[in-house]
């Protein structure tokens, strides 16, 4: 008997655009996942601490402020520092194409940007958790 | 390769929270390879003060917990919070948002918050929640608060399985005493009225006190008929912080009263009994499903066509389980 | 609407029935219609065709004439025949100097008003060197920490000649204070300044989520801006009551207008509580709406909004001046409708939306850049967006007749339907305890989230076609786009100026003023503007002011609804 996939959805930085993250939260819940939402304006450290305490399979970062190139590396570093690298990190929001390669290089597993159909998000997270295997 | 649970247990005893998190997940997923370790953890726990906190939706529980935790932290005690929210009855999934009200706590190393979903009626919640408590207890947490929505039987029982049970009511949620409506008046060791900065809170306090005086909840007495604990009503405000320290004193007093009385011992026994039943129930359910899952579909077909009845079928299936 | 008498109506009904039975059914038997039922984007059912029967119950006086109560047909009697709408492209990035250059470019290209976007730290009240500002300084808008930044931003621009809009909310009052301080320094007459701050905090709690303090003190600040401007800045709009962000957060067009009206009513109530006469401030209340893709629905939406506002002001608040009852609005095309795939198609989307805004009678308009699904717009993208407006104005002749859609059976019917539904929602809000209570309970947020979720599902199923995304998709599309570059020296340049201000100001004086600020904030009868102006003149940073008041008021934390 296994538990539902656990996902922490985090709004990091100062932007308050939560339309996307709310749609994603609902989509994942309706797909049977447990979604933990951090609320708005969180710092990287707060998010990483929460991800560890909640022992989530997936950490979803929603970001529309353009600060992803500053914030994502901080989060990845903190996960490493706190021995939580097995957390699958995905990023949603507005990210220009030219930044995608860098984000993947630092360990972001997938970018689920504007207009990603809800079903695709569920599919992606399910696949990523399967690929990771038991832990 | 997953780290063996026994190794996580060793780390847990040194206060490693990463190990605590992973063990909780394994407990929640009913990982068979972890059961033995969970047993060890149970035996190593038993030091912490377990506080159940429940109340109807909108009673301001999470905000109160946040305030309470900050205040307890001032005495240096480490605090764990298990926040339980309902799963969607349709998908089995959930959105757990209690952390939001506790954001001020997330950078404090002496605070640990874990969200759990009820998973409908498939059970297992009580076991996982109380195991999580053992894990935090073993990791060195002094006070562990289990926060539940006081609407389902399971959640109420979890609150009941604590050393101290607090029921939260709030003004402005309707005229009735909410705790009665929800059937949780009787389980309280302490009644809390939140949002006491509001002018209509006095009425909620008075209503509750009247109810208690009417004998709906009687004071707990020892064998010589001396009252050990009279259920108090404490007003608090998460906005102004009013009443929070009084709540902590009351909570500690309740713990004290029980630690030093036979009633406390009895309560521990009751909790032990409850946990054993819950664990057995889970085990039974799991074994039942494991051993019958293959055969059940064939039977279901017959039952749906009314060629076979569910009573006979169940009896047959149960006969197959080795106890 | 029409003078349809009973005999005519009966005839028309008969004719309609015959038409359905004969022509329509003949055609339907050969080919069914594309859908069984048709709806507007906002979910209003629409009929096959409209006739005089659909407008016969609308009182003629509800439609009226342009510049006349209830202003359905436009706030002014001559509208674009005397002056086109203000073409107001928003701009903001980097430091004050960087945006100043873009402003001057836009003015040289024929833009007639300025509009400023601020970066997230400025919007949220953090200084550029605060940890929370990391990575965000000057990125999505211009960074403003102190009066010195404001000076750089408007250097060489005559503020008595051009109107300036500032898109800012929880910290709007501080920016207004800087604007006033700058004007005083330059010797301008405050009563000649025109423009606006957005300062619509209620919709922040509902939709855009840029807030700092709890609701009550935040609304009080808005009140103070309104009364200050009414007393000192006769031509300045102290607020832009906005539906745009509600729409962008996912709401239906109906809720966009209804929720905006609920907010507007709350502000008017707050200001009148101070004893100020409604006709003293109401003429300067301005609005801001989105223009979405459903062409006719949007036009009806704008017309209905004007009618509803006029009736509210007259009937509920007893306004006497026509200026208090006429709704003027800025409009922006829908950023949420822009796509990354086949991004040039965004120009066409924006064009159609802009045309609806003009036919709906907007007072000023921002057309989005084609590249805004990628980043903030480049100069080239902004130019094309501006040219879009100029083509509509100069080449199509649509601006020559006022409210050309007026009298359309469909449009008038839909306008009245909108009006009815808006008033129904306003009643519901009132009955359930009012706007602030319902914000706290997440009532508005729930409606917005529901429509956003439905929209996502409709896009996924293809029920809501989006060209390039779920229809006519180009699988192997190569995106060839140059986006606005972020200058990596921005934060350093900005922080250098900030630290210079800190090093050269009189800190002792500043601290005294900050204590006075707290005293003013505690006393609701006082206006927070004068002390804030003094503070920015003394070199206070935005962070100084915001943090000082945070110790008094605390931070707002929402209970999210999904």
Give a structural overview.
The complex is a heterotrimer of chains A (135), B (323) and C (562). Chain A has helices at 19-30, 44-54, 68-81, 97-105, 118-132, and strands at residues 6-11, 34-37, 58-63, 88-93, 110-113. Chain A contains 5 helices and 5 strands. Chain A has a 5-stranded parallel sheet, sandwiched between helices. In chain A, helix 2 (44-54) crosses helix 3. Chain A is globular and about 35 Å long. Chain A has a single domain, classed as Rossmann fold. By secondary structure, chain A is α/β, with parallel strands linked by helices. By secondary structure, chain B is α/β, with parallel strands linked by helices. Chain B folds into 3 domains: 1-34, no CATH class; 45-260, Rossmann fold (3-Layer(aba) Sandwich); 263-323. Chain B is built from 11 helices and 10 strands. In chain B, the strands form 2 sheets. Chain B has a 7-stranded parallel sheet with strand order 4-2-5-1-6-7-10, sandwiched between helices. In chain B, helix 5 (125-138) runs parallel beside helix 6. The longest helix of chain B is centred in the C-terminal third of the chain and has 43 residues, at 262-304. The radius of gyration of chain B is 21 Å and the shape is globular. Chain B starts with a helix and ends in a 5-residue tail after the last helix. With 562 residues, chain C is α/β, with parallel strands linked by helices. Helices cover 50% and strands 7% of the residues of chain C. In chain C, helix 12 packs parallel to helix 14. The interface between A and B is medium-sized, with 33 and 32 residues.
List the helices and strands and how they pair.
The complex is a heterotrimer of chains A (135), B (323) and C (562).
Chain A: E1 6-11, H1 19-30, E2 34-37, H2 44-54, E3 58-63, H3 68-81, E4 88-93, H4 97-105, E5 110-113, H5 118-132
Parallel strand pairs in A: 1-2, 1-3, 3-4, 4-5
Chain B: H1 5-13, H2 17-28, H3 35-44, E1 49-55, H4 61-73, E2 79-85, E3 94-96, E4 111-117, H5 125-138, E5 143-149, H6 153-160, E6 164-169, H7 178-181, E7 190-193, H8 201-213, E8 220-221, E9 227-229, E10 233-235, H9 244-259, H10 262-304, H11 310-318
Parallel strand pairs in B: 1-5, 1-6, 2-4, 2-5, 6-7, 7-10
Antiparallel strand pairs in B: 8-9
Helix pairs in contact in B: 1-2, 2-5, 3-5, 4-9, 5-6, 10-11
Chain C: H1 6-30, E1 38-39, E2 45-46, H2 60-63, E3 86-87, E4 90-91, H3 96-108, E5 113-117, H4 120-124, H5 147-153, E6 163-167, H6 172-186, E7 195-197, H7 202-208, H8 215-232, E8 236-237, E9 239-242, H9 244-248, H10 253-273, H11 278-281, E10 285-291, H12 295-316, H13 322-325, E11 329-333, H14 345-359, E12 364-366, H15 379-395, H16 409-431, H17 435-440, H18 443-461, H19 490-504, H20 507-522, H21 529-537, H22 542-553
Parallel strand pairs in C: 3-12, 4-5, 5-6, 6-7, 7-8, 9-10, 10-11, 11-12
Antiparallel strand pairs in C: 1-2
Helix pairs in contact in C: 3-5, 6-21, 10-12, 10-16, 12-14, 12-16, 14-15, 20-21, 20-22
């Amino acid at each position: 008997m296994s538990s539902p996939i656990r996902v922490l959805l985090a709004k990091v930085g100062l932007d308050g655009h939560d339309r996307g993250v709310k749609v994603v939260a609902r989509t994942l819940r309706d797909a049977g996942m447990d979604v933990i939402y951090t609320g708005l304006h969180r710092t990287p450290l707060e998010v990483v601490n929460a991800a560890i305490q909640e022992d989530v399979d997936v950490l979803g970062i929603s970001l529309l402020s353009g600060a992803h190139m500053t914030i994502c590396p901080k989060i990845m570093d903190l996960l490493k520092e706190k021995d939580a690298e097995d957390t699958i990190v995905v990023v949603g929001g507005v990210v220009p194409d030219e930044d995608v390669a860098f984000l993947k290089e630092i360990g972001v597993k997938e970018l689920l940007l504007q207009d990603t159909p809800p079903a695709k998000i569920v599919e992606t997270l399910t696949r990523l958790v399967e690929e990771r295997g038991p832990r | 390769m997953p780290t063996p649970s026994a190794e996580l247990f060793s780390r847990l005893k040194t206060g490693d929270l990463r190990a605590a998190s992973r063990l909780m997940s394994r407990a929640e997923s009913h990982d068979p390879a972890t059961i033995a370790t969970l047993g060890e953890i149970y035996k190593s726990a038993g030091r912490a003060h377990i506080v159940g906190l429940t109340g109807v939706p909108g009673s301001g529980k999470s905000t109160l917990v946040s305030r309470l935790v900050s205040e307890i932290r001032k005495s240096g005690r480490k605090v764990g919070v298990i926040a339980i929210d309902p799963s969607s009855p349709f998908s089995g999934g959930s959105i757990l948002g209690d952390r939001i009200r506790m954001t001020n706590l997330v950078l404090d190393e002496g605070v640990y918050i874990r969200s759990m979903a009820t998973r409908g009626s498939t059970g297992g919640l009580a076991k996982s929640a109380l195991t999580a408590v053992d894990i935090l207890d073993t990791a060195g947490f002094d006070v562990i608060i289990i926060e539940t929505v006081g609407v389902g039987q399971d959640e109420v029982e979890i609150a009941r399985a604590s050393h101290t049970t607090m029921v939260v009511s709030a003004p402005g949620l309707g005229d009735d005493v909410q705790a009665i409506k929800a059937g949780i008046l009787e389980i309280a060791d302490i009644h809390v009225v939140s949002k006491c900065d509001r002018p209509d809170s006095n009425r909620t306090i008075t209503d509750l006190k009247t109810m208690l005086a009417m004998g709906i909840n009687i004071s707990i007495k020892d064998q010589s008929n001396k009252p050990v604990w009279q259920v108090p009503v404490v007003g608090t405000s998460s906005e102004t912080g009013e009443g929070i320290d009084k709540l902590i004193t009351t909570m500690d007093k309740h713990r004290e009263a029980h630690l030093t009385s036979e009633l406390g011992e009895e309560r521990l026994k009751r909790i032990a009994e409850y946990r054993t039943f819950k664990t057995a129930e889970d085990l039974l359910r799991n074994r039942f499903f494991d051993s019958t899952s293959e055969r059940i579909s064939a039977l279901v077909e017959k039952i749906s066509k009314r060629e076979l009845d569910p009573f006979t079928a169940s009896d047959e299936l149960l006969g197959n389980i080795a106890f | 609407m029409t003078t349809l008498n009973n005999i005519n109506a009966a005839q028309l009904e008969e004719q309609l029935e015959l038409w359905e039975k004969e022509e329509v059914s003949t055609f339907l038997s050969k080919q069914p219609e594309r859908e069984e039922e048709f709806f507007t984007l906002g979910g209003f059912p629409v009929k096959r065709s409209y006739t005089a029967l659909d407008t016969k119950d609308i009182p003629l006086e509800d439609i009226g004439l342009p510049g006349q109560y209830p202003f359905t047909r436009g706030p002014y009697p001559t509208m674009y025949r005397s002056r086109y709408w203000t073409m107001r492209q928003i701009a903001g990035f980097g430091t004050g100097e960087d945006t100043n250059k873009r402003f001057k470019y836009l003015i040289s290209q024929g833009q007639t008003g300025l509009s400023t976007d601020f970066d997230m730290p400025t919007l949220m009240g953090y200084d550029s060197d605060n940890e929370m500002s990391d990575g965000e300084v000057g990125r999505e808008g211009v960074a403003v920490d102190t009066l010195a930044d404001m000076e750089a931003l408007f250097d060489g621009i005559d503020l008595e000649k051009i109107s300036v809009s500032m898109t800012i909310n929880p910290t709007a009052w501080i920016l207004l204070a800087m604007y006033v301080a700058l004007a005083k320094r330059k010797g301008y007459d405050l009563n000649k300044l025109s423009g606006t701050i957005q300062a619509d905090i209620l919709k922040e709690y509902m939709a855009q989520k840029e807030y700092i303090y709890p609701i009550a003190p935040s609304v009080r600040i808005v009140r103070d801006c309104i009364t200050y401007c009414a007393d000192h800045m006769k031509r300045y709009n102290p607020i832009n009551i906005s539906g745009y962000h509600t729409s962008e957060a996912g709401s239906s067009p109906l809720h966009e207008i209804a929720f905006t009206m609920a907010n507007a009513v709350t502000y008017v109530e707050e200001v009148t509580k101070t004893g100020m006469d409604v006709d003293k401030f109401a003429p300067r209340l301005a609005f801001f709406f989105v223009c979405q893709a459903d062409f006719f629905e949007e036009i009806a939406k704008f017309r209905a909004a004007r009618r509803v506002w006029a009736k509210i002001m007259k009937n509920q608040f007893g306004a006497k001046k026509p200026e208090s009852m006429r709704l003027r609005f800025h409009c922006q095309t829908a950023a949420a409708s822009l796509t990354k795939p086949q991004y040039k198609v965004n120009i066409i989307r924006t064009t159609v939306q802009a045309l609806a805004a003009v036919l709906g009678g907007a007072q000023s308009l921002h057309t989005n850049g084609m590249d805004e699904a990628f980043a903030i717009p480049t100069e080239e993208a902004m130019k094309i967006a501006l040219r879009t407006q100029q083509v509509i104005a100069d080449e199509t002749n649509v601006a020559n007749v006022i409210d050309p859609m007026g009298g359309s059976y469909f449009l008038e019917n839909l306008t009245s339907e909108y009006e009815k539904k808006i008033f129904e929602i306003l009643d519901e809000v009132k009955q359930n305890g009012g706007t602030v209570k319902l914000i706290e309970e997440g009532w508005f947020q729930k409606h917005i989230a529901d429509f956003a979720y439905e929209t996502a599902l409709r896009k996924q199923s293809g029920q809501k076609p989006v060209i390039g995304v779920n229809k006519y998709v180009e699988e192997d599309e190569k995106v060839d786009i140059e986006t606005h570059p972020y200058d990596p020296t921005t934060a350093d340049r900005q922080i250098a100026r900030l630290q210079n201000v800190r090093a050269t100001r009189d800190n002792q004086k500043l601290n005294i003023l900050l204590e006075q600020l707290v005293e003013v904030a505690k006393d609701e009868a006082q206006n927070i503007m004068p002390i804030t102006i003094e503070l920015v003149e003394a070199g206070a940073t935005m962070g100084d002011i915001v943090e000082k008041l945070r110790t008094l008021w605390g931070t707002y934390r929402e209970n999210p609804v999904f």
